[in-house]
Amino acid sequence: MSFAIETRDLTLRFGSFTAVNAVSLQVRKGARHAIIGPNGAGKTSLVHALTGSIPSTSGRVFISGRDMTGSSQRARVRSGLTRTFQINQLFPKLTVLDNVCMAILEREQRSKVFWTSMAAERSVLEEGRELLELAQLGPQADKVVASLPYGMRRLVEIAIALATRPDIIVLDEPAAGVPTTQSEAIFERIAALPRDLTLLFVEHNMNLVFRFAERITVLAEGAIMTEGTPAEISKDERVREVYLGRGGHHAAA
Ligand SMILES: Nc1ncnc2c1ncn2[C@@H]1O[C@H](COP(=O)(O)OP(=O)(O)OP(=O)(O)O)[C@@H](O)[C@H]1O
């Protein structure tokens, strides 16, 4: 069986420090798969090694069965793996629709100058509106990004990620910084994305993880400690210990 993402002994070192230690991860196609672990466990480093934003030290990365080890981030996006972009990559003074259209033009490698001066390309606008529907941002299409609540902006990042036509989206703390009153709504929208889209997300909020993930991988000190369904992970004493042992604020539910 080919997985959406498969790693074999993936390792990322920073000097003599091993942030990701021989991780062999398998993410099924269409999964809602969470990576959890205490602070400093290596979750973000694993995301970097998967997406190619930092080259891995050793091991292999397969995307939809293709060996992409050593490929650039851009090549991995072309092979179907994308990640949510940070807020600062949004254009705050432009509308939500324009931001998404920019991302479509970027994919097509067309000039943004052309877009801003001509402000019209029916197919791009149509696709932009479709992507906003997928992210349930239709009503916000013509709002300026800077005027949106923070949680909504995070959804714009997801719509922008969709503009790359991904098979897999990696989300590093998609609800970070979002008030808890909004984070559940964001996760509901993320979970409602098309079922054939594979979603791998890093998340600290255990309530969200247990509610939305179908599969959970627990990282500790750079390595996979265990993996299972939410029911299995919530019963696992070792998982409780790694959280409680660090006195972290992310106590397992
Ligand atoms: N560029 C870097 N250079 C050196 N060490 C780094 C670098 N990036 C991360 N680290 C170290 O790697 C370890 C894992 O960090 P990482 O950010 O991947 O953990 P995390 O599980 O995402 O943590 P958090 O939950 O706090 O975001 C930490 O000890 C961190 O200090």
UniProtKB/TrEMBL annotation:
GO terms for cellular component: plasma membrane. GO terms for molecular function: ATP binding; ATP hydrolysis activity. Residues 5-246 form the ABC transporter domain. CDD domains: ABC_Mj1267_LivG_branched. Coiled coil: none annotated. The keyword Hydrolase does not apply. It comes from the Bacteria. Keywords: ATP-binding, Nucleotide-binding, Transport. The keyword Amino-acid biosynthesis does not apply. PANTHER family: ABC TRANSPORTER ATP-BINDING PROTEIN, CONSERVED COMPONENT OF ABC TRANSPORTER FOR NATURAL AMINO ACIDS-RELATED. This is Branched-chain amino acid transport system ATP-binding protein. It comes from Aquamicrobium lusatiense.
